[in-house]
Amino acid sequence: MSILVGEVIAISGVKVTLKVFEQSNKDTLFYDGEKYKGISIREYVSIQRGFRDIICIVEGEHLDEHRFIEEDERVYYVRKVELKPIGYYENDKFFEGIKFLPMIKDNAYLLKEDKLKEIYSQGNNDQSFIIGELLKEEIPISLPWQKLFNTHIGIFGNTGSGKSNTLTKLFTTLFETKIDKINGKSQFVLLDFNGEYTGEQLVSPEYKTVYKLNTKMQEDRFPLAESEFWNTETLSILFQATQNTQKPFINRIIAGRERFATNPGSFLSYIKTTYELIFSAAAPKPDTLDLIREITDTLGNDALKVKLKTVSWNTKNSNFQCIYNGNITYLNSNGVGYQTVFETDVEGIRLPVLTAFDEFQIRCNIQLIRDLVNGYVQFEHIQPLLKRIDSSLSSVKKVITVDNQQPEAKTLTVISLRKCNQEVKKVIPLLIAKHYYHQHKDTVENPPRNTVHLIIDEAHNVLSQQSTRENESWKDYRLELFEEIIKEGRKFGMYLTLSSQRPADISATIMSQIHNFFIHRLVNDRDLFLLDNTISTLDSMSRSLIPNLSKGSCIVTGTSFDLPMLLQVNLLEREKQPDSEDVNLVELWK
């Protein structure tokens, strides 16, 4: 038995009113050698109804306006508290949900701490996964890790609210307790926009690979296999190709390359015949001159560079002309001009060592030349793509390498984007998500025997619908992949964990598919409104606490938890904390 503290005096729907005995108005009570918390907001009571105990949480309290006078003429006020049933005990087992309601005159008792631990542990016998304790009761709670990490997780909170510590504590605890079982079966990929996890965080170095990407100077580069680089989707992502005109253009390049892949000399022959096509075409195009000059610069052929400088477009004759042996020579449709001026130098072209990016740039120019000469495309539709390729290549080359020798995958891969420019910060996360998603999707068995967990810190950087740095079609293209992962990924064993300061900025489709939430302090009305309309398991009392949560405390709720929990997440040791602590001005300015 426990301490009798009151009796039910009213029931309205699922709202229960309890009359509290005066002697129970204490903060702490002791009974049979055990300590109990008195009745106050967010405390729990047990109401006996037959052989069942109905568990209720206190949502409000007030003094009754009515008073009565005892024989000694002293005035007494009746204290009433409002309760909400959350579940019931039957045969010593807790069941969540409202199935039974109390009746008037039923007795209410204080709840033992061990019972409260049972309720929030949800019958979880594995008590090893503890990341914090209940804020008010200070009881350590083990989370149901087996039901948590096979779902999509959202960690949200304003800057300084402790969300980075929660993210780190969650996965540090997972790796510390389960690394032997995880290794070789699951892969974790962390997109780190601020470089907070490149040190000793999360897991020991033997299980961790770190890529520090830098667009200013080359450090590490993320490896792509040749087959993955020479892919329409990959190249469209890297250079933000539009869906209707530029992506089909890239597709023609890939198809042409694959057609002649078995012939080693085909690429060189392809380049040589392009020179002849430009200067022997019946209907030459002036725009092709700049394109062939760029190809010549990439090849490093000095003799052709010099001759091409003398070539110009003759508007009157609609043809190319050049200065050869001091005279003007027309490069006309009968091919005589080309044979005289260029043929010998073109036949002498030798391919230098080209990177995949150089080859792609050459193939783009050749494809556009041929499409223009044959009248397949308008120059102004494809030119923006070539300009983007020119401007992006210097950055992309520094953060990506194309190599068929792929490094051995470790349990955790951290990809730091701290030193990348904004363009790369938009493109690389999309490329990496595609890299892991399609690779996993194409090889996974049914049901999945291995999993991929993609963790995106500061997710609003890449999943925002508010970004104005890109056009709408590309923004839709970028979000569609992540929306596909979060909608379809569970079938293939791929899960997302998102951490963000602004949940309202993230795509509504993505937010609606998150299963479990760790919600730190949020004060913006748009963020709070979104949570109200997204999380069905968030009760009104927990919702009202969000703007006033202290640092490190959060509301934990979702499909893996029977009840919302107010949890104080434990602070990690200094060397395991993410590099996101506040600047100590006392130390800095001393």
How many distinct beta strands? 25
- Which residue ranges are poorly predicted, with pLDDT under 50 across at least 5 consecutive positions? none
Mean pLDDT: 81
Q: What gross morphology would you assign?
A: elongated
Topology of this protein?
Blueprint lengths: L3 E9 L2 E6 L7 E4 L2 E4 L6 E6 L2 E18 L5 E16 L2 E4 L10 E4 L2 H9 L8 E5 L5 E3 L2 H4 L4 E4 L6 H20 L3 E7 L15 E7 L7 E3 L1 H4 L2 H7 L7 H14 L6 H15 L7 H12 L2 H8 L2 E3 L4 E6 L2 E5 L4 H6 L1 H5 L8 H18 L5 H21 E3 L9 E8 L2 H22 L7 E6 L3 H4 L8 H21 L1 E7 L7 H5 L3 E4 L5 H10 L5 H6 L7 E6 L6 E5 L15 H4 L2
Parallel strand pairs: 12-22, 12-23, 13-20, 13-21, 14-20, 15-19, 21-22
Antiparallel strand pairs: 1-2, 1-9, 2-7, 3-4, 5-6, 5-9, 6-7, 7-8, 10-11, 10-25, 16-17, 17-18, 23-24, 24-25
Summarize this entry quickly:
The protein has 20 helices and 25 strands. With about 600 residues, the protein is α/β, with parallel strands linked by helices.
How would you characterize the overall build of this protein?
36% of the residues lie in helices and 26% in strands. The protein is an alpha/beta fold and 590 residues long. The strands form 5 sheets. The protein has an 11-stranded mixed sheet with strand order 11-10-25-24-23-12-22-21-13-20-14. Helix 6 packs across helix 12 (356-373), helix 12 packs antiparallel against helix 13 and helix 14 (422-443) packs parallel to helix 16. The longest helix has 22 residues, at 422-443. It starts with a strand and ends with a helix.
